[in-house]
């Protein structure tokens, strides 16, 4: 009988058309076409249930279910939209043409997230064809993750019964720079705001700076009151009140996280010292405030001696999983008022709460045990939660599903960048891990 990895090698090319669909939510490109392709594929794979959910706004969400003779269910979350390709001159090949070179699959979405979804579909195809599907398997595939999953809560709330499961395996992940599989129990939250100020009804001549305030000076002076100089400490009253507590066992995982400050500084050519003495804990659990961009006045070539009337800044907060994104925006406005900058107006743009799995949950332990069986006892790095944001809260917090994340990437996969790629050898390892987890979940009491 053909093995799972042999089957994958033979059938990965069946998904070239899927990869080559230019599916970009930010540009509303091919979302319907890609959803239709997936619906047809799930039917071809003989899913027992295939549904298209679009009754709560946004692009189509695809739900599929493969039923087995089991009372256990695993839910796979994925998304079919990708990031834009960026500058095509940075690519060594067409971003939307599948290229196989040096054991790598190279195409936009190879990792995030089409490659992860394809890997899971190949797994189910194999298990169905060989009559080995050990548990019920569900898929929820959305089409707007790359622009914030703004409708996901409506869908998970509306379809709670459909989405019930004993374990949710999140969209994917990667090995770290030392080749260890990173398994994470969730994601940080994020809050994105805009802060703006107006100081006059028109731009003024810069000679009037003798007596008239300029908007950009007012803005940067106000923003400077929100963070301690030389550290990452946020100076907003109440912002640390709902930061998650860390248990002794969780602290051990944080301390075991591999982080080389010298290498990080060297690789990124950091021009300033690190902002914290404990970057591991800061990455996993502490909020941050970042000015993403500033807009004001004249910025074209040459000189224009103007005193700008308007300035604004885009800011994001990375949050501890339990923090409320909208509350952070409110606290920011209150702090600016308290600091004497009531004219700086905060506008909440978008945000997502975080999520962190309970490390003592038996099914989370099961995943870690199986990962170590496949990758070796020292080949796995568990992280309490990833340092980026995503809609895991809609499943982990709102639906109460144990949630875990791992995937087919590596430290050179260039997710969101040019020449996005994955190694077929990494795909094969993850396929083996997926299969083991499904079988062990079925055995769990």
Automatic annotation (TrEMBL):
Assigned keywords, A-Z: Hydrolase, Metal-binding, Protease
Peptidase M20 dimerisation domain location: 194-336
GO CC terms: cytosol
Pfam families the UniProt entry points to: M20_dimer (PF07687), Peptidase_M20 (PF01546)
UniProt KW Repeat keyword: no
Gene Ontology molecular function, alphabetical: metal ion binding; peptidase activity; succinyl-diaminopimelate desuccinylase activity
Biological process terms in GO annotation: lysine biosynthetic process via diaminopimelate; proteolysis
UniProt protein name: Peptidase M20
């Amino acid at each position: 009988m053909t093995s799972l990895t042999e089957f994958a090698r033979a059938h990965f090319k069946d998904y070239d058309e899927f990869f080559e669909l230019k599916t970009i939510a930010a540009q509303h490109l091919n979302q319907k076409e890609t959803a239709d392709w997936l619906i047809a594929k799930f039917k071809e794979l003989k899913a027992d249930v295939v549904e298209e959910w679009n009754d709560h706004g946004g692009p189509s969400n695809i739900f599929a279910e493969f039923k087995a003779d089991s009372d256990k269910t695993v839910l796979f979350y994925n998304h079919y939209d990708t990031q834009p390709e960026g500058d095509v001159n940075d690519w060594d090949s067409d971003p939307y043409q599948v290229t196989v070179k040096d054991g790598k699959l190279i195409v936009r979405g190879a990792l995030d997230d089409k490659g992860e979804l394809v890997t899971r579909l190949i797994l189910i195809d194999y298990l169905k064809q060989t009559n080995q599907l050990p548990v019920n398997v569900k898929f929820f595939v959305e089409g707007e993750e790359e622009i914030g999953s703004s409708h996901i809560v409506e869908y998970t709330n509306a379809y709670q019964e459909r989405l019930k499961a004993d374990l949710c395996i999140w969209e994917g992940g990667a090995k770290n720079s030392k080749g260890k599989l990173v398994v994470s129990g969730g994601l940080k939250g994020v809050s994105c705001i805009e802060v703006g100020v107006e100081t006059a009804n028109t731009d003024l001549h810069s000679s009037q700076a003798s007596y008239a305030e300029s908007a950009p000076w007012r803005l940067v002076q106000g923003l400077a009151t929100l963070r301690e100089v030389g550290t990452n400490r946020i100076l907003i009253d109440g912002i640390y009140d709902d930061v998650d507590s860390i248990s002794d066992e969780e602290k051990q995982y944080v301390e075991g996280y591999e982080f080389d400050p010298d290498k990080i500084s060297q690789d990124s050519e950091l021009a300033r010292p690190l902002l914290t003495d404990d970057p591991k804990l800061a990455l996993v659990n502490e909020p941050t405030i970042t000015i993403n961009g500033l807009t004001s006045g004249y910025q074209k070539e040459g000189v224009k001696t103007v005193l700008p009337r308007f300035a604004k800044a885009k800011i994001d907060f990375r949050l501890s999983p339990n923090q409320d994104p909208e509350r952070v925006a409110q606290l920011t406005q209150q702090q600016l008022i308290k600091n004497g900058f009531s004219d700086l107006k905060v506008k909440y743009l978008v945000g997502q709460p975080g999520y962190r799995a309970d490390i003592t949950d038996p099914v989370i332990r099961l995943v870690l045990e199986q990962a170590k069986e496949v990758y070796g006892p020292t080949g796995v790095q568990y992280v309490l939660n990833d340092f980026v944001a995503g809609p895991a809260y809609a499943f982990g917090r709102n639906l109460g599903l144990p949630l875990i994340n791992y995937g087919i990437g590596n430290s050179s996969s260039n997710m969101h960048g040019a020449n996005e790629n994955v190694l077929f050898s990494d795909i094969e390892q993850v396929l083996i891990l997926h299969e083991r987890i499904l079988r062990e979940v079925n055995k769990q009491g």
